[in-house]
Amino acid sequence: MSVRIRSDLEKLPAYVAGRTVPGSVKLASNEVSAGPLPSVVEAITRAAHDVHRYPDMAATELVETLADRLEVTTDRIAVGCGSVALCQQIVQATCEPGDEVVFPWRSFEAYPILARVAGAEEVRVPLTPGHELDLEGLLAAITPATRVIFVCTPNNPTGTSLRREDLDNFLRRVPPEVVVVLDEAYREFVTDPEAPDGVELTRQRDNVVSLRTFSKAYGLAGLRVGYAVGSPEIITALRKVYIPFSVSAVAQRAAVASLSATAELERRCAEIATERTRVREALLELGYEVPASQANFVWLPLGERSAAFDAHCAENRVVVRAFAGDGVRITVGAPEENDALLKAAASFQG
Ligand code: PMP
């Protein structure tokens, strides 16, 4: 007799990770291509001496450092094993079977998986024809069963960002018992002064939680650490469903060290933003449609040509991320990596 696994898991789509192909440029996972800063490597090395001990469950030093930076009290911050774990914790903390999780689509591909694993119903709201979040559509999707709305800004994979004023108006109209998750995994790459600051919005509304990560701008994707900022009520609930010790001591110490190197990291983000403009303009020049991006990637809505573009890039030793039948997401890398991508894009005949 075989073991009994939940029958609905069979229908669950698997999370697809960007491929790593030795010898190819990887522009598939929205990582930064520059390696960790020397000061962060030093912190990791020091922390390695203590790995026979369990980490600090409360991540005290990291939470205190973040609280200081963000000018919030420590009861308004929870850390998680990557911000994806915090997305899961939010769903677990709010949804019972049959409850609804509303999110834009296309957006971060973990949302539907996390909703379904929790036994909740997924409610997808299509993007606008301009590849932006449809805030009116998200509002219209709310029912008495809605517990969570994910609002990803800048949106993965389209890169588009909301305007502060539009998000404010939206939040005013969401019932106060519904948790709004502002997924700001790419916030540090934003250059638009009109873009919202999710942490600021969490001060004004108790149902808003901002999620940020050390995986992207801070270059610590391999260490798995993110954080949530929100009302003590939400943060307490997130801590209740936290898998004990899931943020390692090494990750905690590296994150603290990164927070002391913000000037260097901001410089890196500014370089990526400059490259983002260059890559987008070059792609526009080649005739591609490219929505304006505020993240460290750009989106090519190639529809049925997406798989062919992906294959053509792979032949030219550039790994991008295709979403079949929809589009291709391309991470903005170092200048020479972007040059390789632009060369491949120029010779694509699909
Ligand atoms: N949110 C969004 C929008 C993302 O794109 C990602 C990573 N792809 C995450 C959350 C999760 O990142 P991490 O778990 O590495 O913090």
TrEMBL record:
Stored CDD domains: AAT_like (cd00609)
Family per record: Belongs to the class-II pyridoxal-phosphate-dependent aminotransferase family.
Catalyzed reaction equations: an aromatic L-alpha-amino acid + 2-oxoglutarate = an aromatic oxo-acid + L-glutamate
Function summary: Aminotransferase that catalyzes the conversion of aromatic amino acids and 2-oxoglutarate into corresponding aromatic oxo acids and L-glutamate.
Cofactor requirements of the protein: pyridoxal 5'-phosphate
InterPro entries: Aminotrans_II_pyridoxalP_BS (IPR001917), Aminotransferase_I/II_large (IPR004839), ArAT (IPR024892), HisP_aminotrans (IPR005861), HistidinolP_aminotransfase (IPR050106), PyrdxlP-dep_Trfase (IPR015424), PyrdxlP-dep_Trfase_major (IPR015421), PyrdxlP-dep_Trfase_small (IPR015422)
Organism from which the protein derives: Actinopolyspora alba
Coiled-coil regions, chain positions: none
Aminotransferase class I/classII large domain span: 25-343
PANTHER family (alphabetical): HISTIDINOL-PHOSPHATE AMINOTRANSFERASE, HISTIDINOL-PHOSPHATE AMINOTRANSFERASE 2
Official protein name in the record: Aromatic amino acid aminotransferase
Quaternary structure (record): Homodimer.
Residues modified to N6-(pyridoxal phosphate)lysine: K216
Keyword Transmembrane: no
UniProt-listed Pfam families: Aminotran_1_2
Enzyme class, UniProt record, top EC level: transferase
Keywords, in A-Z order: Aminotransferase, Pyridoxal phosphate, Transferase
Gene Ontology terms: biological process: L-histidine biosynthetic process
Record-level Gene Ontology MF annotations: aromatic-amino-acid transaminase activity; histidinol-phosphate transaminase activity; pyridoxal phosphate binding
EC number(s) reported in the record: 2.6.1.57
